[in-house]
Amino acid sequence: MQNKLTFFNSDRRYYYLIFAYIVLSFLLVFSYKSIGGYEERVENFLLNRAIGIVDDTSSKILDQIIFKNPNFIKTNLQDEALRAENEKRLSVLSNQDIKSIYVLYLNRGKYFFLFDIDKDEHTEVSEPFIPEHEQFFNQVVKEKQKRVFVQRGIEELSFTLLKPIVQNNKTVAILVIDYTENRLSSLLRVSVDFLSYFALILLFFLFFFLVYILYTHYNKYKVYRNPKTNTYNRVYITDNYDKINFKNYYVALADIDFFKRINNLYGQENGDKIIISVIKIMASFLDKSDIFIQYSGEEFLIFFSKENRTEEQIRTILERIRIAVERSTFTVDNEKTSLTISIGVLLHTEIEKSLQEVIHKADTALYESKHNGRNCISYFDISQTKRLYREKLKELIESDKLICYYQPIKDLVTKELHHYEALLRIEDGDNIIFPDKILPDLEDSYLYTYLTKRVIEYNIKKLREDENIKISINLSADDLINDSILAIFAQNSDLADRLYIEILENKSIDYNKVELSLQKLKLFGYKICIDDFGSGYSNLNHLLNLSIDYLKIDGSIIKEIHHDKKAYSLVKTFALFCQQNNIEVIAEFIDNQVVVDILKGFGVKYGQGWYFSKAVPYSELSKEDR
Amino acid sequence: MKNLLYIALIVPIFLVAGLNVDKVSEALADLKSVRSNRVLKFFNDNKSIKLTKRIKFTSLEKANIILFPKKKIKNKMLIVDSYRALQNNKNSIGAIYLKKGRTQIIFIEERLKKNGLALPKSYNKHILSECQIDPICLLADIN
Prior knowledge:
The structure holds two protein chains of two kinds.
Chain A: H1 2-9, H2 13-33, H3 35-66, H4 72-78, H5 80-90, E1 98-107, E2 110-116, E3 128-129, H6 134-143, E4 147-150, E5 157-167, E6 170-180, H7 183-224, E7 225-226, E8 231-233, H8 234-239, E9 249-256, H9 259-266, H10 268-283, E10 291-296, E11 299-305, H11 311-327, E12 330-332, E13 335-337, E14 341-346, H12 355-371, E15 377-380, H13 384-398, E16 402-411, E17 417-428, E18 431-433, H14 439-442, H15 447-465, E19 471-475, H16 477-480, H17 483-491, E20 499-504, H18 511-524, E21 527-533, H19 540-546, E22 550-553, H20 555-558, H21 565-580, E23 584-587, H22 593-602, E24 606-607, E25 616-617
Helix pairs in contact in A: 2-7, 3-7, 4-5, 9-10
Chain B: H1 2-16, H2 21-30, E1 32-33, E2 42-44, E3 65-67, E4 77-80, H3 83-88, E5 92-99, E6 102-108, H4 109-114, E7 117-118, E8 127-128, H5 135-141
């Protein structure tokens, strides 16, 4: 059954664990059998390190002894003085770790003493010697290679070094150095055992650990599996919310239409049989890397892998599933029945923040399918253009294409510059993107705060570069309650007398929340301005509570002032209110002298608009103004 | 004189102390008479060496082989406790002693044959010829 495969394939760790288990089992058996070999190798390694200097020095001495002596055995046997001299040479090797140093020569496969350095237990020349571990002696003779081995069963000896003395490519004698039992050798012996058995114990531990993992995995499998349908159940998804990388899948939620009727009509047992049949149909369209979950009784959550599949292909597959279920007949108690399914799909999972959100959106789309008459597929999706645009904006912001244009705000009487309003723009090649094409698309995204910070930093930099300029920047109410943004203002409070903060009033402001932030900003010395006043949820009472410094009347009212009585009286009222409460008024969107004259008549002090200047880049600001 | 006596008593004990008793017992048990029906009986003159019961022990008089004799014994096969003793005493068929911490078990081929004794092939490394215990003969044998 395909859905069985679906279950296993969606959790590849299970395969890896079984593979590791098999490998480890073989390794364990192999290691157990060959532990002797490992011991020997470890032993040789440690022994070779222990003999170190003695090995090197003895080679040099042996070279001296046999130097230019073609038959050094016979010569030494015959010449007692020479023998004594050579024994003296060899005695240089003695140290407290060495018990005996002697040289054995060979005659008819048997060993006889040639030299013996031991003064306490000196052996006469030509006395026979039958070694323990004779195989090592014979091996040295045969292979002409040194050998060091641990002595077992001989008291006071720890290990022995055997060095062949080779003449005419034939081993004629062996230098034997017996090491005493000391702390080093005891440690060495323990180390060999320890290393070998530690490795074996470690392997055993790993083996049992793996068995434990497999066991717990199997138990999870039982919990996550619906035994009737052999698919994942809802527990799997709730346990693995954080583990499923939903961005790699298209997600569909499918529901059998009017299933309760079938249950009522044919009973739950038959209902289960029908569910199994529907699952079989759906599973036959799935790929090995897809995940199929029986989300509730007749509701199925399917994760379609995005690997090698386009959106179009998924649309086709889903349509085929829908048609296949629609065209199938299900036999219950010799009666034939048919049914349909509704499907809700979320394709663009890559922009979602959590799996809960993904399932919620797929569920919303499923609801739409139900609402549209069932037996259909609905896609929850922001439009492709909007998505691409958002991605493009993200790229431009992250690649630092953000700039500000500046529009002067002037004294309406003297026409002198008061300050500039910084207006956000994004450069897209030769095109300039305006805020109305930026902010609505980013409002719910983390990029919005990032963007605000970048604008603040951009203008702080400008203020530090140009000491004669004053700038106002726009913030939303949400920005004001963001601690990281407030921190930037706190760090740059030395610029407070040249940096004005305009709070956008186009959205409802929770004044209780922003009040504290505004108090802080006022404490730092910043001037506060309410922007777009009159456009949204304006409340004159709040203006007094917040102790604001400037009020900017919304441009949509100003531009109507000379031919709309309501606008006229509204501005007049605002202006009077502000005069009485020491709030300076700024009018925007001024595009002719008539408007200027009316505003002056109301006592409005400052204005901005195309009548004075369009917003321009910093490099194009007039020098007189600055 | 007292010191010499002390050394004479103590040295042999040291020479054989630490012997691999199992190995010695096994070798002695494997020593067989080529003459049929003759069971080899041993007498151990050094009580500090405890050999196993696989070997048949008897009194000095009845024994065929005397182990580690402390005094001169005539008309008996001897297994002595030093190499020097093996060289010097033609009645000794072998020697068992310690050398460099290793148990040395040596038998002389010609003497075994003369006394109608034999050892399995696995003991070949323990069997030397008369020539090999004679330094002059051994020297002549080396090219």
